[in-house]
Amino acid sequence: MWAKIRKTFLAGILVLAPITLSIYILYFLFNFLDSILKETVTNFIINRFGEESIITAIPGLGIIFLIALIFITGAIARNYFGRKVISLGDYIVTHIPLLNRIYIAIKEISEAVFSEKRELFKKAVLIEYPRPGCYSIAFFTQDTKGKIQENISEDVVSVIIPTTPNPTSGYLLFVPKKDVQDLDMSVEEALKLVISGGSIHLKEKINLKKIPPYGKKRKNKIV
Q1: Which of 5, 29, 64, 218 could serve as 178's disulfide partner, Cβ 3.0–4.6 Å?
Q2: The dihedral of CA 111, 113, 117, 121: what is its sign?
Q3: Which residues 6+ apart lie within 8 Å of 130 measured at CB?
């Protein structure tokens, strides 16, 4: 009897937990984004019209103005005059001690994630890590360039190895291109496998024989 009760209780958790957490996260994000500009917009309306109105009570008012602000900023940034102004502001900020380090780091991350030319998480690959004979799923980001590649004799690529069950953290590795095997799965499928701790069944089989032992020449290369 107790076994049946336990199984029924766990079944209820499996059904309710995903939808409950999803709704909670969306609710939290909605309130967070809405609060960024809502107070400013509300104060502006009160100062302009002298009292609170129905408009100030609209849920999501802050999000609406935030989206409008982002869109207007993007429109300005895409024309010639706007680019000149942004370049001037960029020059000033990058020459302010301490602030420039934070600004440059955030700007580079933003460009890597939101740029139209981004290569972040381009494909799922397989590498030998953390030792020969052990294999880890990684995500190919780009062919390594600049100072890193200049100091390495081999042709290397940049890959990120995510942690389980939280793939938002992980390790950045520079791996020889010849040691990387492409996987016949999408990035989404690979993420599901990582998050589930390998418990999700995949139809595709990973052929480990394609990866020769360390020290031997590998034929598989990323094009």
Answers
A1: 218
A2: positive
A3: 136
Q: Which amino acid is at 31?
A: N
Tell me how far apart the alpha carbons of residues 107 and 186 are, in angstroms, rounded to a whole number.
Answer: 28
pTM to 2 decimal places: 0.49
Domain count, the chain: 1
Which residues form the domain of 161?
Answer: 123-210
Tell me: the pLDDT tens digits for 136-181?
999 998 888 888 888 988 899 999 998 888 877 888 999 999 999 9
CATH number of domain containing 130: 2.30.30
DSSP track, 149-208: HHT-SS-EEEEEEE-SS-TTSEEEEEEEGGG-EE-SS-HHHHHHHHHTTT-S--SSPP-G
CB of 172 closer than 8 Å to CB of 158: yes
Could you give the C-alpha distances from 102 to 93, 106, 154, in angstroms and in order?
Answer: 10, 6, 32
